[in-house]
Amino acid sequence: MTLVRPSSALALASLTDPALRVRAVQAASTYDVGDLVQVTHAYMLAGSRRGARTSPRTLEAYALAVRDFVPWAQEAGVQLLRPGRRDGGRYVAQLQTRRSLGRGKRGQLSAATVAQYVAGARALYRALRWAGATEAQPFEDAHVPPDPTSPIVRNPPYTREIDAALAHCDPRLAALLLLCAHAGLRVSEALGVQTHDIGGTRLTVRGKGGKVRRVPLGRRVRSALTDLSPVGPDGALFAWNYAQATYRMGKAFRAAGHADAWRGFHAARKHSGTRLYRATRDFTRVGLFLGHSSVDTTRRYVAVEDDDVQREVEDF
To answer: Please, what are the domains in the chain?
Structure first.
């Protein structure tokens, strides 16, 4: 799969209005997946609320969704520029009844995957409207039922797996895992750390939407970072992209005997949030540590024990 380079999307966004409209109309009329991904990325980088600060992972996720939706639309007889008012709902229903083809996965697509695909398809139509190709909004009334399972139950934090996997990591991979599991960084934030970001016991982190926060580093994380030499002239400590880091960490979990427990880096971030909450009992402080703008988000990162208030209610 070839991903669209940001430079290509920005070049597309620089076209005149008539030229952009022609390009988008031609792509939609011929079900040209590659060009429609480019139009979507151009909109995300130059027309969406986040603009050029849209994360690479969001762009990749929307590209995957467009690559799924467009072939389905062609096979289902949907005219992309003139879809029927029920076509969005048809696509949602098809996703909800589709069997997962992922390695090691069984059953139907998860609610989160369905929501991600629909979000990408909606972004495609925002992009087509932005390009002047259509005013259609086939997903306006399409309902995507939320997953009734709590996020912390679907993807709980790692526990003993962290130390077990660390024993099978080289120093650089161990530092990456500690940045996520002990310092609470998103993996994209951790992969972007440079030597000049480290200042004593704190780390300057550039997070979502360009937000900057200062994260305290424990002794174990500081030690791991001190032992690393930069991999580039800019002081970057990691040369891996997300896929490369995921592959390496998956190998470490397998070597530690926890292959079935590997659920990506997000569970490591939840590990740090859960440990900090148990130490502070303060969602606000945990949210600031993790870089959340809402405490409601933080609650989805913390595994709270069922009897968390047993002591408090004992003498009610």
So the answer is: 6-148 (no CATH), 161-299 (1.10.443.10)
